[in-house]
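FIELD: query
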Amino acid sequence: MPRVVEVIDDHPAGGRCRELYEGNIGMRVLSYGAEVRVAAPRSPDSYQIYLLLRGAGKARVGGEHVDAPSIIVGPREKSDMWWSVDHEVLIIHIPSALIERTLADHLGDPPERAPRFRPDITRDSAFSGVLTMVSRASAGGRLPFLASPSAGHHFEQFLLHSLLDLQPHDYSAARRGPGAASRPAALRRARRYCEEHAGESVSLRDIAAAARVSARTLQHEFRRHLDTTPLAYLRQVRLAHAHADLVRLARTGAEVTVTEVATRWGFTHLGRFACLYRETYGRSPSSTLYGKRGPRARPG
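FIELD: result
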C-alpha cells in the first residue's frame, strides 16, 4: 500500500527495516531514521496494526485523533501518523479475507462486511498484552518459530483469534449473543458436512475434522443443542435422502429395489433400515416404493 512520507528532521543513524515474519500475515519492525509524517490512503483489502516500540507518536484514523501507543487501521480507513526522530514501530499486516474468514468461524455465517475495530489499542487492554508478547519474542531478530510452517500457522491463528476476542469491533456483541459462539458454528459446519457427504463412508472423526473440533466436543454439542449424537444425526440425514428417493422412484415407476436405495445411502442392514424407516415415516420402505401394486418381477 503506497504511503506519502514527509521527512521533518533527519536522524544520523538512518532508516532500518527488519522483517520478522512473512506468511499469510506480515510483520516487520520499521524506523524511517527521521522525524516523519506518514499518510496512508485507504486500503480495500487489509488491516494494519502499528505498535510504537520506541520514541513518540501521534495518529489520526478516519479523521479522528487516536491517543494510544498502538492503533489498528481497517479497510477503507485513512490514517495519518507522526513519529519522532528516534521512533521504531512494529507493523503487522493482515489481509481482510483472513479476518472475515476467522470471524465467520466465530459467527457461524460470513459477516456482511469486514469488521471495523476500535482504532485505539490502549496499554491496559488484553490485546496490547498480546502485541507486547510478540514484540518481546522478536527482540533478538526474526520470530523463533519460522523454521516450522505448522508453528507459523498456529501463530497466525492465535493472533487472529486474539484480535477478534480482545479488541472491540462492530461484531463483538453478535459474537456474544445466543447461538453465535464458536461451538454452535462448529455444529453448523458438522451438519452441513453430513448433508453434503451423506452418500459417502463417513466416520465420527471425519465429521469432527470438518467441524474443526474434537470428537468429544462435537458429541457434547450435538447432545446439548440437538439431543442426539453426530452419527445418529447422519443416519437421519441418510434416511431422509432414502425416503426422498423412494418417493421419487415410486412416481416414475423406475425398476429399482429397496435394497438398492438403502445401500446407496449407507444402510447395509436391511432389517434395521426397515425398522428405522417405519418408526420415522409410519410405513415400510417397500410400501412407499411400490404401494399396493407390490414389486414387479424382474426379467430372469
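FIELD: remark
Residues 182-227 form one domain.
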